Amino acid sequence: MGTLNAQLERVALEVQKIIDRDLAGEDAARLKRLCTDLINRGGNNPAADIAPVRETIAFLGEKWTGLVFYLLAAGPIRYSLLRRLVSAISVLGGDQGISERMMTLTLRRLERDGFASRAIFPAVPPRTEYRLTPLGHALHEQFLLVVQWLEGHRADIALARSRYDEAANG
């Protein structure tokens, strides 16, 4: 525990030095509070406690995960139907569809993280269905809030991108 506290103190001091070197006043105080909050969220093992959060956020933002996750909320759905739906809808975004390998990897990761479950039914050929778990449904509620916010700010985002691109391209 002493080593952990020493490490946390070293990180906190380094963050403070970096902020103090570049900022002052309320901006510096606000950033220090934010960084301190992030460091303190780590509990007894900051690296181990913070890493899964970052990994999950990154995974949910990957190309196929959001759409697969969104569609799983409809209830039990067969693998083949889910893959066809993801491929059909992805055409709207200019994609060619999801490969079988990527679909399998995405579903396995959702299952590994506890957001989805898989059921295999004996049949010829075998039938596999996926559904959100209670944890997945809880996250889905929050996910929808982000989706709704993004939909409501689509024009703002497009304008910001346009302004940025104009400035970047001279």
Could you characterize the architecture of this molecule?
The protein has helices spanning 2-22, 25-40, 46-60, 65-72, 79-90, 100-112, 134-152, 154-168, and strands at 77-78, 116-121, 127-132. With 170 residues, the chain is mostly helical. The longest helix has 21 residues, at 2-22. The chain has 8 helices and 3 strands, in the order H-H-H-H-E-H-H-E-E-H-H. Strands 1-3-2 form a 3-stranded antiparallel sheet. The model has no long low-confidence stretch (mean pLDDT 87). The termini are far apart. The protein is flat and about 65 Å long. A hairpin with a 5-residue loop joins strand 2 and strand 3 (127-132). The protein has 2 domains: 2-40; 59-160, Arc Repressor Mutant, subunit A.
Topology:
Blueprint: H1 2-22, H2 25-40, H3 46-60, H4 65-72, E1 77-78, H5 79-90, H6 100-112, E2 116-121, E3 127-132, H7 134-152, H8 154-168
Antiparallel strand pairs: 1-3, 2-3
Main traits of this protein?
170 residues; mainly alpha; Arc Repressor Mutant, subunit A; 2 domains; 3-stranded antiparallel sheet; 8 helices; 3 strands; 70% helix; flat
Give the count of structural domains. Answer: 2
Low-confidence stretches: none
CATH architecture of the largest domain: Orthogonal Bundle
Number of DSSP-assigned strands: 3
Mean pLDDT figure: 87
Shape, principal axes of CA atoms:
flat
Q: CATH superfamily of the largest domain, called what?
A: Winged helix-like DNA-binding domain superfamily/Winged helix DNA-binding domain
Explain briefly what this protein structure is.
By secondary structure, the protein is mainly α.
